[in-house]
Amino acid sequence: MKKTVLSSTGGPDVFQIVEVPDPEPGPEQVRVNIRAVGLNWSETMIRRGDWPMDLGGGFTPGCEAAGIVEEVGESVQSVAPGDRVAVFDVSAYSNPEQGTYAEKMVVDEQRILKIPASVQFAEAAALPMALLTAYDALIRHSPLPESGNVVVTACTGAVGIAALLIARMKGLRAVGTSRSEDKLDLVRRLGCEAVAAHDPKELAEKVTQCLGGAGPDYVFDPVQGTLAEELLSIMESNGTYVFYGNLGGETFTLPAGFLFRQLKVHGYVVLANLADPQDLQEAWSELYPLIEENALPIPVAKTFAFPDFAAAHRAMEEHAHFGKLVVVR
Questions:
Q1: Cα(311)–Cα(319) distance, rounded to whole angstroms?
Q2: Which of 140, 170, 98, 163 minimizes the C-alpha distance to 279?
Q3: Mapping DSSP to helix (H, G, I), strand (E, B) and coil, where does residue 124 land?
Q4: Domain limits for position 261
């Protein structure tokens, strides 16, 4: 089989395609013939060296995919050869052999996610990281309020879109923010409001204007840095601010009055929170009926033919897409 590896960091052209034997499943494992791979910004960071990893003799990126069960171990009971499934395997971030940038992979049975028959492979590959991150953070880890408004920063990526959809599903007022206006009409088509500004202070002012002079009750933010300082300074009392990334690469300072407004600041990392397979399966079982009803659609912005991960990564770095980039076979 073919798989994509990183032996050094750099631009998209550092990816190498290698031929290796098909992996053999152990007693509690499943071999999946991968038909579609969802891309995530963390993989760009690994490729560029922004997220230090031991590349060893060749690191295969990727933690989410969709495909067909090809072979199962003797103890596997929940799936059988021929089943259509998705994969969300956080061990790919620590095991150089475990990434989804490959034609086939072996996964523990408990990391296999069932998908409805109506969902195509490219759509299924776009779902796990986005939906599990947003749902587990906003519903299970740091629950949304019963009423009020939710501000989602970096709202045009897959996780941001999922968060907006979940907030709307809960009957909350949802406002997405971005550094540019380019894709905000697509956000508004989701039934959400949207504002854009490159300067964090200006963005916070626009959020306040959008909310009629009020501040956010809940913020879901992967950026941190100065943007966090500005949004925290305008939050309503007893509000909740959830960080799920560090895209800006900057630290931040809690604003004056933080204590007296009783703001709650939470950190969320899906790779840690859903590392336990039981937690993963519980979260997915809650999401499954919503996926079946197409209540939380994650747009597939563009597909690329396997194994052209270099082209997909170049598109990722252009930040011109709305939703998910997917590599398909």
A1: 13
A2: 140
A3: helix
A4: 131-270
Task: Render pLDDT for 31-42 as a digit per residue (tens, 0 to 9).
Answer: 999 999 999 999
Tell me the pLDDT tens digit for each residue of 29-86.
999 999 999 999 999 999 999 988 888 889 999 999 999 999 999 999 999 999 999 9
Contact 316, 41 (CB under 8 A): yes
Give yes or no for a contact between 132 and 104, defined as CB atoms under 8 angstroms apart. Answer: no
What is this structure's pTM?
A: 0.96
On whether the CB atoms of residues 198 and 175 are closer than 8 A, the answer is no
Assess contact for 250 and 229: CB atoms under 8 A: no
Residue 298 is classified by DSSP as -
Which residues does 215 contact at the CB level (< 8 Å), separation at least 6? Answer: 207, 208, 234, 235, 236, 239
> What is the Rg, in whole angstroms, of the alpha carbon atoms belonging to the chain?
20
**DSSP state string for 36-50:** EEE--HHHHHHHHTS
Q: Which two tokens stand for residue 62?
A: 């990727």
Buried b / exposed e across 253-288, counting CB within 10 Å, b at 16+?
Answer: eebeeeeebebebeebebeebbeeeeebbebbeebe
Q: Assess whether 84 and 164 both reside in one domain.
A: no
CA distance 15 to 8: 9
Q: Are residues 104 and 171 in the same domain?
A: no
| CATH code for the domain of 306 | 3.90.180.10
Phi, psi of 204 (to 5 degrees): -60, -40
Return the DSSP state at 284: H
Asked whether residue 202 falls in the same domain as residue 232, the answer is yes
